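Provenance and format

Records in this collection were gathered into a single text stream. Each protein contributes a sequence line and a token line. The two records reproduced below are adjacent in the stream.
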Amino acid sequence: AFCTGRGEVVTGIEPPLTTPEGSFWIVKPQEGCPTGKVYGNLGLKPGEELPGEDPEKLRDAMVKDGISQSVCVNDLEKPAQMVLPKLERIKEALRESGFSTVLLSGSGATTFAHSKDKSADPRVALKGKDVDIEDMYVAGPLSFVTRQEGSWYSK
């Protein structure tokens, strides 16, 4: 689905995205990011438009070429990293260890990580990287679900 506005406008993507090969993980530090602080760090005035990538162009590129770091954009990532600097260290460590796409979810603090390598493990990537891996929730590798027209989701 393609979500716009504050995430409340949901439209289907046609054709559906291709399921990426490899491994997909979720990494969540114990700390959270207060949504108000993250949005406040954007520095926007009431009614001011958020500068940045055109979401529809990003969606179209993702449909055409699949997921990649260049099309997985979250405007709240930098403001969330200001609230919780460890998020930037997590992203850097995952990228350095070969995770090809690393993205913060919403206003934080969950990070999604995809690697084309099925054996990739973020716990290995984060060990010794100035983040307390013991206090993190790490889930994966996770499976994507798909849905055929008129049916429910399946593996």
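Adjacent record:
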Amino acid sequence: DTTDPAGRTALLQKAQKFIADEYVNGYIFQLAKTGVANAKINGLWENSPTQANDMTGVSWSD
């Protein structure tokens, strides 16, 4: 019963543990990425869950 404070706390703790154990990198938003890139570049993210530029999957095509 979620109207019971102790029951609600137990449910929230269970949910938090599940998320921490199973979805460590579960992002809750997508940061819009505005920019221009050469059409021959493959693997650039359209949007980013972080402000870092992950270039590990980027490559050139002919």
